[in-house]
Amino acid sequence: MVRFSQTLDDRQMKNREKPVEQLKDNHHYYSHEERQPHVVQMPRDDRMYAQPPRPSYPEKPAYPRRDNFQIPQQREEIEEVIYERPVIERESVKPDLSKPELKFPSGQNIQFGVEYSPNSKPPVIGKNHTIRSNSIIYNDVVIGDNFRTGHNVVIRENTNIGDDVLIGTNTVIEGDVIIGNDVSIQSNVYIPTNSVIEDNVFIGPCACFTNDKYPVRINYELQGPKVRRGASIGGNTTFLSNVEIGEGSIVAAGAIVIHSVPPFYLAIGTPARIKPLPDHLKVPNRF
């Protein structure tokens, strides 16, 4: 009978024939005592654990310090090249002070540094006013008591403002404007020349008034809108020149007013449509 491989029984029979010492050397057999790990018993009072000795490594060679290195000098020195303008170019950069002062034709109405006329007077402002930073008030302006502004407000000459008026930030009021008492004008409002705003009027933010019917086309007498007593104007509204907003009327936000609004009516839409004002809205503004 021919066997192609040794079975487990055959290996066990051969192991029995080998002596015990040879089996230990071949790591095929270990006694029960040798299988247990070697434990070093330390005394109970000694709390310092034994540490194995540290291996000794060969000392590293002492490398030379960086100070000992010397940078080899370059054989050829590179000269720095600085660009210099030619003499003709340098002379052309200098300002020519011999030229006459720039002047525009008188018909174009362009001037540098406009000065006030000798008859102009500084602005007059009443009691208890609050004017915030970067606001500019021109000469020949008269303002009443309890006046308040936001930042960056511009009020130009020949403007008359009553008592208890609020003008919001970035609002521009051109010259020759009349504003009554108890008026609240919010931020970013533009009021052009020859506009009239009566008492107890509210103007929302970003409202834009115009005073030129045909801009830069034909000569037209500038006529701004007239906002009558107790009117209320919403934000982002636009008004054509020479329109009249009647007493107690309301202009809805975003409306474009191209025609006059009768008293106690509502203007809404683009262009604005005129509708009767509901009875519960026929009350004065409350600030």
Tally of alpha and pi helices: 4
Radius of gyration, CA atoms, in whole angstroms = 49 Å
Beta-strand share of residues = 15-25%
Distance between the termini: 121 Å
Mean pLDDT: 79
Structural class: mainly beta
Number of strands: 22
Oligomeric nature of the chains = single chain
The main β sheet shows up as: 8 strands, mixed
The helix/strand order is HHHHEEEEEEEEEEEEEEEEEEEEEE
What is the 3D form? Answer: extended
Major sheet: order of its strands? 4-7-10-13-16-19-21-22
Which segments are poorly predicted (pLDDT under 50) over 5 or more consecutive residues? 1-5, 28-32
Question: Helical amount among residues, as a percent range?
Answer: under 10%
Task: Characterize the structure shown.
The protein has 287 residues and is mainly β. The protein is built from four helices and 22 strands. The protein has helices at 8-17, 20-25, 32-35, 87-93; strands spanning 124-125, 136-137, 142-143, 148-149, 154-155, 160-161, 165-167, 172-173, 178-179, 183-185, 190-191, 196-197, 202-203, 208-209, 226-227, 232-233, 238-239, 244-245, 250-251, 256-257, 265-268, 273-276. Mean pLDDT is 79; it is low at 1-5 and 28-32.
